[in-house]
C-alpha cells in the first residue's frame, strides 16, 4: 500500500493534467463499450420488454440453435464470408500500390492532385453512394441505361436485380470510396523510409522498381501486417448500411448478410425477437475474435510482426 501511495505521488500527481485528458475518452469507452456488454445475456434469455433483461427467463443456447437451424443460415453465413473475403482480398493490396506509385512519382503538384482526387470519395455519405449506384444503373432513367439504349436500341437489363452482380457492385464501389483514404497510412510509413537507402541503391544501379521491392516494401512491412491483422479482426462486419440500401427482393439470395438479418429479426419482422438478434450478433463477434487471434498468431510466426 505504501509503495502504491509513493508511486501515485511520484508518477501520477505531477502529471495529473495529462491524465485528466484521458478521463473523457475513458468514460466514453466505459459507457458505450463496456457497460452495454452486460446486454449480451439477452442472447441466453427469452427477452420481453415488460420483464426487462433481469426479469426474462433463461433459455440457454436455444436462440443459437434457432439461428443455426434456420432455413437460410448457410446462405447468410456464406454471403457474409464471401463479401468479407472478396472485399479484403481485392481492397487490401490496392492502397499499398497507390501509395507506392504516389511516393515514387517525382512531380509534387501531380502528387497533390492525385491525393485530393482519390481522397474525395471517402467524404461522400454511404447513403449518397448507394443512391448514385441505384440511379446510375437504373435501366430507364440511369446514365448506364441511356448509353445501353443508344447503342443497342433495347432496354438495359436490371443489373441491381441480378444476384451475381451484387457482390461485385458492393466491393468495387467500396474500393472506389476508400482507396485514397486507406493509402494515407502507407504514405506516412513511406515518408519515414531513409532516403540514404535509395541513394545508395541508385548509385549501385538499382531501378525504381527494384528500389520499391527491396527498400520501400520491407520498410513498410510492419505497417502492412498490423493493418492486415486489424482488418481480419473485423472480417465478419460487412457494412450494414450500403448492403441494406442496395438490397432488393431480386438480389436477396446474395445480399442477405448477418448484419441485415439481425436488423430484420429485431426491427422489421413485427415480432421483435431481440434475443435471437443478440445471439446472432454474439456469434458474429465470436467468429471475429477467433479470426483475429488466428491471424495474429500466423502473422507473428510468418512475418515476425503481431499485435501482442
Overview of this protein structure:
The protein has 308 residues and is mostly helical. The protein has two domains: 1-34, no CATH class; 73-302, MetI-like fold (Orthogonal Bundle). It has 18 helices and no strands. Helix 14 (221-232) packs antiparallel against helix 18. The radius of gyration is 25 Å and the shape is flat.
The CATH homologous superfamily name of the largest domain equals: MetI-like
How many E strands?
A: 0
Protein structure class: mainly alpha
Largest sheet properties:
none
How much of the sequence lies in strands comes to under 5%
User: What is the molecular shape?
Assistant: flat
Explain briefly what this protein structure is.
This protein has 308 residues and is mainly alpha-helical. It has helices at residues 2-12, 16-21, 23-34, 52-55, 62-68, 73-91, 93-104, 108-119, 126-136, 143-152, 166-191, 195-203, 208-219, 221-232, 240-246, 252-255, 258-268, 274-302.
Amino acid at each position: 500500500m505504501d509503495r502504491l501511495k509513493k508511486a501515485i505521488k511520484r508518477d501520477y500527481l505531477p502529471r495529473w493534467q495529462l491524465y485528466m485528458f484521458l478521463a473523457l475518452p475513458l468514460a466514453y469507452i466505459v459507457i458505450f463499450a463496456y457497460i452495454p456488454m452486460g446486454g449480451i445475456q439477452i442472447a441466453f434469455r427469452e427477452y420481453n420488454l415488460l420483464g426487462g433483461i433481469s426479469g426474462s427467463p433463461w433459455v440457454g443456447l436455444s436462440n443459437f440453435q434457432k439461428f443455426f437451424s434456420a432455413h437460410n443460415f448457410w446462405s447468410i453465413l456464406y454471403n457474409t464470408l464471401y463479401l468479407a473475403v472478396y472485399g479484403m482480398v481485392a481492397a487490401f493490396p490496392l492502397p499499398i500500390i497507390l501509395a507506392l506509385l504516389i511516393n515514387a512519382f517525382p512531380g509534387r503538384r501531380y502528387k497533390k492532385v492525385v491525393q485530393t482526387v482519390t481522397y474525395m470519395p471517402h467524404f461522400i455519405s454511404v447513403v449518397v453512394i448507394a443512391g448514385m449506384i441505384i440511379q446510375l444503373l437504373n435501366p430507364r432513367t440511369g446514365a448506364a441505361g441511356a448509353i445501353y439504349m443508344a447503342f443497342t436500341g433495347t432496354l438495359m437489363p436490371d443489373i441491381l436485380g441480378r444476384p451475381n452482380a451484387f457482390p461485385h457492385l458492393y466491393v468495387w464501389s467500396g474500393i472506389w470510396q476508400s482507396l485514397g483514404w486507406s493509402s494515407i497510412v502507407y504514405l506516412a510509413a513511406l515518408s519515414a523510409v531513409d532516403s540514404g537507402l535509395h541513394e545508395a541503391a541508385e548509385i549501385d544501379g538499382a531501378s525504381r522498381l527494384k528500389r520499391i521491392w527491396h527498400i520501400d516494401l520491407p520498410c513498410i512491412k510492419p505497417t502492412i501486417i498490423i493493418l492486415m491483422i486489424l482488418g481480419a479482426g473485423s472480417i465478419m462486419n460487412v457494412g450494414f448500411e450500403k448492403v441494406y440500401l442496395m438490397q432488393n427482393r431480386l438480389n436477396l439470395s446474395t445480399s442477405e448478410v448477418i448484419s441485415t438479418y439481425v436488423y430484420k429479426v429485431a426491427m422489421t419482422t413485427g415480432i421483435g425477437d431481440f434475443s435471437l438478434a443478440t445471439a446472432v450478433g454474439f456469434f458474429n463477434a465470436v467468429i471475429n475474435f477467433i479470426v483475429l487471434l488466428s491471424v495474429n498468431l500466423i502473422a507473428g510466426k510468418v512475418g515476425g510482426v503481431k499485435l501482442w
